Amino acid sequence: MVISQTLVQLGIPRLGVATLQEGIALREAGISAPILVMGALFANQFPDMIAHRLTPVVYDREAAAGFAACPRSGPEPYPVHVKVDTGMGRLGLSPDEVLSLLQSPPFRGPLRVEGLMTHLADADSQDPSYTQTQIARFGSVISQLKAAGLQVPLVHAANSAAILCHPSAHFTVVRPGIMLYGYHTTPLGGDALELKPVLTLTTNVVQVRRVAPGESVSYGRTFVASRLSRIAVLPIGYADGYSRALSNRGAVLIAGRRAPVVGRVCMDMTMVDVTDIPTVRPGHEAVLIGRQGDMQITAADLAAWLGTIPYEVLCSIGPRVIRRYSPIPAQAT
Questions:
Q1: Is-cis flag, bond preceding 105, omega within 30?
Q2: SS in 3 state form for the chain?
Q3: pLDDT in tens, 70-112
Q4: Are 176 and 206 part of one and the same domain?
């Protein structure tokens, strides 16, 4: 929410969210800019979309007809975006269905096509050929609509990877996602743009325990001390989004040094070995994602340990983790 408010303050004219609930939350936070809900919608959600002045994405004839028939008190026609499946294999109309939909009764009064969109399946690949094929398919739809005299104000396809590597996908609107958090997953020129991670995940040491050789730590006894060890207990676990798969694999930063995760990550607690960091005491900060001194652990590091992508790491941080927001530093002039 704070990120959306910051974007609006920076002059971004419209926002995109995944769900109806996210859109309502932004409206309740006082954001009046146009908000596009890009995810799946059910018919029983249409009245709330209209009540909160949210823009839906239409991805089949049934959705278009259902939304067009939904009662509304505001002016018509109601703006919608139409999604084309050019190769993602998820939501969307096939390219040969778009023109006939836009010439159908729902778009002759109740609805107005404000935007046309598609989603790129492979924009972060080293091989750009599939993305180029999708862009060409999308371009063909745009040309077909123009030939029929249909003008669509907003056309968009580019996610973060395509913003960095596929200029031909920029059209009139782009949809940065993970870029907003300072990450990208593309090997194709992504390093040409310097992105700075903006999210830090921290906690504090709650206890430091001594573990004798042969004693174990956490569930399943997956870590057995081979030496007299000092183990720091952190009050964060997989219920907060710090994955159980980081057991005996991850690391955190304490006192400017890496401390390995030992034993199973629990629902509410994680243990790390601080034997080689003798100054660690209860209350010391532990950085799970972020920088401490000259050391840094990023969401990409966690993703590598987990065999996944930074998107999943960042999205997994749970609602019980307290959020604190820092203002953007003033730029030097």
A1: no
A2: CHHHHHHHHCCCCCEEECCHHHHHHHHHCCCCCCEEECCCCCHHHHHHHHHCCCEEEECCHHHHHHHHHCCCCCCCCEEEEEEECCCCCCCCECHHHHHHHHCCHHHCCCEEEEEEEECCCCCCCCCCHHHHHHHHHHHHHHHHHHHCCCCCCEEEEECHHHHHHCHHHCCCEECCCHHHHCCCCCCCCHHHCCCCCCCCEEEECCEEEEECCCCEECHHHCEECCCCEEEEEECCCHHHCCCHHHCCCCEEEECCEEEEECCCCCCCCEEEECCCCCCCCCCCEEEEEEEECCEEECHHHHHHHHCCCHHHHHHCCCCCCCCCCCCCCCCCC
A3: 988 776 899 999 999 999 999 999 999 999 999 999 999 899 9
A4: no
Q: How many domains does the chain have?
A: 2
Based on the domain organization, do 188 and 212 belong to the same domain?
A: no
CA pair distance 233, 210, nearest whole angstrom = 11
Q: 320 in a domain, yes or no?
A: no
Is position 329 within any domain? no
What pLDDT band is residue 333 in, cutting at 50, 70 and 90?
very low
- For 300-320, the pLDDT digits (tens) are 999 999 999 999 999 999 999
In a domain, 333, yes or no: no
The mean pLDDT value for 110-139 works out to: 96
Provide the residue range defining the domain that includes 260: 201-315
Quick: pLDDT tens for 20-69.
999 999 999 999 999 999 999 999 999 999 999 999 999 999 999 999 99
Residues 6+ apart with CB under 8 A from 10: none
Q: Which residues pair with 276 in a beta bridge?
A: none
